[in-house]
Amino acid sequence: MAEQRKTKRLFTRIPVRVQGRDEMEKPFVEETTTLEVNRDGARVPLRVTPRFGARLEVTNLSTQVTTVALVTHRCPQSYSGLAEWGLEFAEPVPDFWGIAFEETREGQPLVVSALLVCQGCGRKEMVNLSNAEYEGLGEEYFLSRACPICGASTQWQVAAREEEEPSAIAVASVEAGAAGWDDRRSSRRLALKAPILITTTNGSSEAREAQDISKFGLSFTGSLELKAGDRIEVSIGHGVAETPSLRKCLVVWRKPRDKSSQYLYGVKFLE
């Protein structure tokens, strides 16, 4: 398998058909939807149990493009109620998801990345924004940039997340309710990843990356021990913006991330 560089993960649901052989070598065909995608693969829930290392055919049902993917691991935490599997493409497939991804290199300085949609042709790109582009987004989250399809400079908008991240586990849902938070809010959750600095009331701090942002709050993965009801300060654009946005926040839910002792947190802006 050719060496592939990593790209940003994006929580999005794309219908796919997966077919191959299960762990008992019986053929199967199953239609499902992705939970996360990047340029090199996806996380998908399956009713069957495939064999580790098996080669499966994956078809993007939105485009009818098919490729071969390898089963790399079973995800220890399930958000869909089914077993979830990490799949990695056997060979690079440009634009398999209909999204152009920029590479993420080891040691790369802090950047803001966003899923942008060209308002002229609808092209989607997951790109790293320059400091100037981030500062120029404004409240409507639009910016001008060259489009390779339109052949001109066009208006691009930060895309809304098509789906929420996988639902929180029961404990997290109870915690969210206790905090008086309705996570089914209707505001646009933007596919915008930005460097942040989290500071707790006891002075502990951690530099992380927001996974998405809305007018009401954001989510991030961190190793700080936080629980629903905790108050924190979050500096958005830390290390990137000349004047980062400092927000007082309330932790409203958390859920464990796979293969680590970290949690995915959801926080609400208090102002």
Structure in words:
This protein is mainly beta and 271 residues long. The protein folds into three domains: 10-89, Thrombin, subunit H (Beta Barrel); 109-158, no CATH class; 170-269, Beta Barrel (Thrombin, subunit H). It contains two helices and 19 strands. It has helices at 131-135, 170-178; strands at 10-11, 15-21, 27-33, 36-38, 41-46, 55-60, 65-75, 83-89, 99-101, 112-118, 124-129, 142-147, 152-158, 192-200, 205-213, 217-222, 231-236, 245-256, 263-269. Strands 1-4-5-8-7-6-2-3 form an eight-stranded antiparallel β-sheet, with no helix packed on it. It has a six-stranded antiparallel barrel with strand order 14-15-16-19-18-17. The longest helix is centred in the middle third of the chain and has 9 residues, at 170-178.
Protein traits:
single chain; disordered N terminus; 19 strands; globular; Thrombin, subunit H; 3 domains; eight-stranded antiparallel sheet; 271 residues; six-stranded antiparallel β-barrel; 2 helices; mainly beta
